[in-house]
Amino acid sequence: MYRLLIIAILFVSFAMNGQTKTKKDPKGKTKVAKVDSTGAEIEEEKTPEELLELTLPLETEIDAMTGKKVFYKERKLRNDSLRNALRIEQRKKKMSFWVKTTYPNPKLKNKQLPIQLCINIANKDTNLTYCVNDSICKDPEIKKVIYEKVVGDTTYMLIFIQAYTKSKSDGGVCNAGKEQKLYFVRWNPKTNVAKWKLKNINSCIKTITNMTKEKITEWDKTSVLNVSYHRGSTFYDIKFDPNKPQLGFQTEGGGGAAE
Fold first, then answer.
1. Within a 10 A sphere around the Cβ of 219, how many other Cβ atoms?
2. CB–CB of 88/118 below 8 Å?
3. How many whole angstroms separate alpha carbon 82 and alpha carbon 123?
4. How many CB atoms lie within 10 A of CB 192?
């Protein structure tokens, strides 16, 4: 009877181990790893902090002769210096303007987000990252805040993005094509809530052609910005008045907001 009881306990123990796995995180704390239906561990995306920890030398070790724990003060100081440098770098990146494309990690088995275009905006000690699914305008070569003005609690911005067309579905037709986007952003840093309005003003894939006379990135920010483009047989004319940013994009001659 005791033998049967021991076998039953071992069976339950093995079954539980098949559902979860434990491992140490870089700080030495035990955490439970996610596993799939077969019991195999699902690899998760590691943060920059976790990746750094994997490269750092151990700060404590067990002496093989005495069995006592040995603490290495110099290693600890060097490691802390590298950790602090990473924190400063991450903070600097977080509080700056950037635009980049994020891709799913092919090494991860769990469900991931598709290819996205992400924009990060910052104001003093607040930042906001906005991402949209975009497999056409990837890894933009030009990204620039061409206008920014604070009125009360609201920050108004115009962001210009340009990338050479990088699509695998066009059969190479758009290899020299360009994707151009113009974003109007109405952002309240205090509440960290923003409204984003997009105009695709040039796209080889979507057959949109930019007909604007002046180079948008060289706009003087004082005169009214006039943007013209057409898609097929339809022509569009929009304008942006830097003295009235709250109006956003306006239809040329219509006097009203375009969106």
1. 20
2. no
3. 27
4. 11
Using pLDDT thresholds of 50, 70 and 90, give the confidence band for residue 15: very low
Please state, in angstroms and rounded to a whole number, the distance separating the CA atoms of residues 182 and 213.
Answer: 16
Residue 42 has pLDDT above 70, yes or no: no
Please check whether residue 79 is in contact with residue 59, taking contact to mean a CB–CB distance below 8 angstroms: yes
Per-residue tokens: 103: 């891709």
Whole-prediction pTM: 0.70
* Long-range contacts (CB closer than 8 Å, 24 or more residues apart) made by 69-76: none
**164 with 138: CB under 8 angstroms?**
no
The 10 Å Cβ neighbour count of residue 171 is: 8
Q: Please spell the DSSP secondary structure of 3-60, one letter per residue.
A: HHHHHHHHHHHHHHHHH-EEEE-TTS-EEEEPB-TTSPBPP-PPPHHHHHHHHSPPSE
The tokens describing 152, both together, are: 């009360």
Q: CA–CA separation, 209 vs 192, rounded Å?
A: 34
13: alpha, beta or left, given left = phi > 0 and alpha = psi -120 to 50? alpha
